Structures are given as C-alpha cells and as structure tokens.
Protein: Citrate synthase
Organism: Hirschia litorea
Amino acid sequence: VIDISSLSKQTGHFTLDPGFTSTGSCESQITFIDGEKGVLLHRGYPIDQLAEKSDFLEVCYLLLNGELPTAAELSEYKHTITNHTMIHTQFDRFFDGFRRDAHPMAIVTGAIGALSAFYHDSLDINNPQHRLISAHRLIAKMPTIAARAHKYSIGQPFISPRNDLGYAANFLRMCFAVPAEDYQVQEVMARAMDRIFILHADHEQNASTSTVRLAGSSGANPFACMAAGIACLWGPSHGGANEAALTMLQEIGTVDRIPEYIARAKDKSDPFRLMGFGHRVYKNYDPRATVMQKTCHEVLDAVGAHNDPLLQVAVELERIALEDPYFVEKKLYPNIDFYSGITLKAMGFPTEMFTVLFALARTVGWVAQWQEMIEDPTQRIGRPRQIYTGAAKRDYLPVNKR
Ligand code: ACO
C-alpha cells in the first residue's frame, strides 16, 4: 500500500488552487483589470474611452499590436480584414452537415475548428507570417461564419459580406438582410453593435482565454485553439450568462415579483443565482456594464421600446440588489451580461445567438493572447498538478471474484 499523503512529497511542493482564484498563469501586456476599483484597460487605454471614441477594428489593431494605429496603418488594416471576409463556397457546404435546428454555438465551434482543415497550408505556429494570416482570417471570417450559423439555424439563405460596409454594419446585414429585399443598416444599431464588440474584445485570463492559452501551449494550431475557447465560452457561468440573464428577466416578468427572486438568490439551499450579477475579479461595478447600460437605453429608444417591461424589471432589480446587504457584503454588482441580453434582443437577435456574438468579439482577445504566448520565450506547455484523493494501490481482481 502506498501512503498517498507521501505522493506530493515525492514530486515536490505545489499549490492546490481550485478555480485558480489566486494563481497567475502568465505575464501579459494586453489587458489590466483592477477588480476592486472597477478599472479595465486595454494596452493602457480605459475601456470607456475606447467604447466612446474608437471602433472595433481599431481596438483589434491595438490589442494585437500594442499601440493605436496611425491613419495609414488603420486604413491598411481595415482593408486587409475586409479582404478576408469571404469564405470559400466549398466551406459553405460544411454547414449542411448540421441538423437544421442546431444551436449556432455548436455550428460556430465546429466551423472555426474546421478552418484548420481548410487552411492547413499556413498552420506553422513558429512562422510569423502564418500567425499573421491566421489572425486576419479569424477576425475577418468570424462575422461571416457567425451570421451563417444564424441564417442556417433559421433556415434562410446565406448573405454574402459587403466590403463597402464597416465591420459591425456588414455583420448586421449578413444576419438580417433577406435576398431581393432592401435592407439598410441603421447607424444607431451599427454603432451599438460595434460598441458591444469593443466591450467584449478581451478580459485577460478568463476561463475561455485560459483555455485558448492552455490548448495553444501544446503547439496546437490557432483555429483548434479558438474552437477550444468557444467551447469553454458556451457555459452559463461564462459567455452563456447573457442568455441566462435574459431568460431570468423574462421569468421574473414583472417588477412586483423581484423580491421573490432576490430571496431565492440569497437562499443557500436554492441553486438559483441572479444571472448577470457577480464576477470573479470585479468587486465593484463592472466598467463594461456602465457602457452597456447606456447602449441598452440607446437601442431601446431607437426601436421605440423604452417602456420594455424587461428593461423596467432590470433597472428595478439592479436598484434593489445594490441596496440589499447580501449583495453589498459579497460585492455582487451587475456585470456586462446583465444589460447585454436585453440590448441584443431589441436589436433582433434570438437568444441562441448571444454567446455567438460574444465569441465573435472575443476572437481578437483570444488571438492576441495566443500570439503573446507563442512569442514568449519562457512559454512551456501548461500542465497543472493535482492532489490525488483516490484509492490506494490495490491488486486487480478477476470479474468472478468481485
Ligand atoms: N447571485 C447570488 N449569489 C451569488 C451570485 C449571484 N449571481 N454570484 C455569487 N454569489 C455568492 C455565492 O453564492 C457565494 O456565496 P457564499 O460566499 O455565501 O458561498 C459568493 O457570492 C461568492 O461566489 P462564488 O461562486 O464563489 O464566486 P466566483 O468568483 O466563483 O463566481 C461568478 C463568479 C461565476 C460570475 C458568479 O458570480 C455567478 O455565478 N454569477 C452569475 C453568472 C454570471 O453572471 N456570469 C457572468 C460572468 S461575467 C462573464 O463571463 C462575461
């Protein structure tokens, strides 16, 4: 019999940190978060300034290159991304393999992974040119693939990208235009979409980004790593929370039912949680939630839904929770997902698309983090340890002796 308690001594000391609450997995220059103060900076720039003054492709450039582009650099970058938005008709057939009612997240996970089968000639992760072209392809093709996943799941024909439109406007058109019908993207919607993309672009070592880095640490190709990140994002504790928050607001339905749900959220025997509340890092208002709340009001005004009962429930729920000692003591504030579901619904997206939109926007963060990891000379394969708590060594018994 092996004394299990001696196993850790045999292999040296290591820390048991479930959920990695206090483990730094890497050094990074991309994103800074001060969760106590509610600060989020990308390459040093505050998220509210980027959301207000920049646009998504400029933020992509910033995240990937470390500096804001000059006018010439930005123009060239936008031109490059625009030129990669198409996907090959052969790749279109890939979508037909899915059931008609497949969840768009399932389609996107499969399609992004399948890009590695399509672009297998440029997958050398040690070649900077291959890394660059993969980054361009991912950022450019993700909206096309996401829009196709939506169109496929609702049984409508695919809409090709329009390269004279901006990144967000083109995406909205690919999602909502119908052949032979005139479809004009409203400026306020394009701006809101672009801002939502900026708000989701990166968030340092969250679960999906850590997944991308861990997958990439083995030398896996970038498309495979992104597929791993998308799969992780799908969960309701992460990217699926905006869908869950909207479902919760719909379930609450009216302002008078809020106290019942607040009580349930505080009851430890009830697994229910207020979706869109709380964050591993933010112990203050999520700075993205502030911008998202403003964007939500703008979109609802634009569609004439400022009296939407869901918004009324959300505003009142936030007010009550922020005054409740349970939420105050545990520092549970609304996160970005609290208002994003209402906003996306008002823009016309079905709930199944919410996490897809998150994945679309987060792609640049995943690529930037993956690239930073590959270029780090100290990078090693990620390999967490464990504390073994299973059975001690024992002899195999034939089936007739068990
Ligand atoms: N409602 C009620 N209580 C909550 C909530 C909530 N939304 N969030 C946390 N708590 C409570 C927990 O019950 C726990 O209480 P205890 O100390 O009495 O046991 C305490 O606050 C700490 O919670 P943990 O789960 O330990 O915190 P953790 O950092 O592991 O989880 C998480 C963070 C997953 C975001 C959590 O707050 C949650 O489940 N929120 C709802 C889902 C959500 O909105 N997710 C989106 C995250 S942001 C993003 O991915 C973009």
